Amino acid sequence: MLTERYPEFYPNYLMERYNKDEYFSRIEPIDYSRFLVISLGAGDAKNVDANKVEYMYTAEEASKWNRLKWLVDFSKNTNPLIDFFMEGSADMIDWNVEVDFKNTDKLEKYRYNYIRIQAHSLSGNTASLDNIDQSNLNDLKEIGKELLGKKMLRMNLLAGKSEEIVADKEVTNMTALDWFAQVLVAQRHRVQDAMNVANSN
Asked: What highest taxon heads this organism's lineage (predicted)?
């Protein structure tokens, strides 16, 4: 299937490969075990916790909106249409990256190559992206510290929400980041050793 990133703009097309068509060659899947990705979210006020989703809007409610209500909801001081686009784009990116890393043949060994850290319980000032008051920055700092000690979450592709990794109930965000750092340090040492050998020759 094509057009994964923006399905709201472009329709999906099924591309078939015919054995006798010389213009279509076999494309080998990418080995994502060679990649290391840390994704730090700006926070999400939608979810109170990983297993409970609170929706700001409902389908029944939206079905009664006029054009203005889609742009501005004065009762909630929100912009529904913008919220839908922003949330939809973020969710699609999370979903696609998760799919990419789950497709590796070495999932058990490399399941920490993609780390997604996101606060799912922001409210009030902490949920605002443009509030730079010192008190709010201090609150965000404390939320970040607490987030390090929380269990690592991965997106459940069937449910479309973040959940704890069943096989690693004790793995926290800090544990995953420590592993990530160790891999980077080891790689740096390998590169430095290779450069030293090359320079000595």
From this structure: Eukaryota
Calculate the CA dihedral of residues 187, 193, 195, 198 and round it to 10 degrees.
-140
Percentage above 90 pLDDT, the chain: 11
145 lies in some domain: yes
Residue 52 pLDDT greater than 70, yes or no: no
Question: pLDDT tens digits for 94-106?
Answer: 777 777 777 555 5
Closest CA to 57 of 84, 19, 30: 84
Q: Which domain holds residue 40?
A: 32-56+88-185
- φ, ψ dihedrals at 52, nearest 5°: -130, 125
Residue 173: how many other CB atoms lie within 10 Å:
20
Please measure the distance between the N-terminal and C-terminal CA atoms of the chain and give it in whole angstroms.
50
Rounded to an integer, what distance in angstroms lies between the CA atom of residue 47 and that of residue 173?
A: 18
**Does 129 fall in a domain?**
yes
